[in-house]
Amino acid sequence: MIHKGLRPLVFCGPSGSGKSTLIKQLFDEFPDTFKFSVSHTTRMPRPGEEDGVHYHFTNKERMQEQIENGEFIETAIFSGNLYGTSKRAVEDVQSLGKICVLDIDVQGVKQIKRIDLNPFYIFVKPPSIMELEQRLKDRNTETEESLKRRLLVAKSELEYGETPGNFDIVIENDNLEEAYQILRNFVMSNYNPHCHTDETTS
Asked: Which sequence positions are flagged as catalytic?
């Protein structure tokens, strides 16, 4: 099964927690160490998106069939489209000798816990729901309705994220630099010989 390679890294956290920024910093500092698994989706490609690079674009029938065959480690539905991570996508990253990174929601985490992927689980949370609400408002992309929905989802995600035993580490992102140091220390202590910065590889 999959965990022949390095243990994958699963990131989870509410929208607006700063999770994507932390992941980006990790990739910037260790460009040769980490790689995202490429997810499948049944939505249409957006301009500039390449098949196999941004997503594996597929159709519902095909993906449904693959899910039933047990080819996926987690799936979710967003606005009527299926999304998911296939076992193959994780293996593709591991075969390159890289650490596979997954950025998924709580539902995905619960699904992965049922299989033998054996990743490290990292939960990124905002300092408070009020702070999260402010960050989402500052983005100016939310309607009153979608903001309410996001905050409801965030509350249940925080509840799951803060439950002892669900994650290997919970990072409170109050100050980005401090949060990144905590993430970096966690990664270095678990993958030390594999973490290469640009300096060490050139």
From this structure: 46, 139, 150
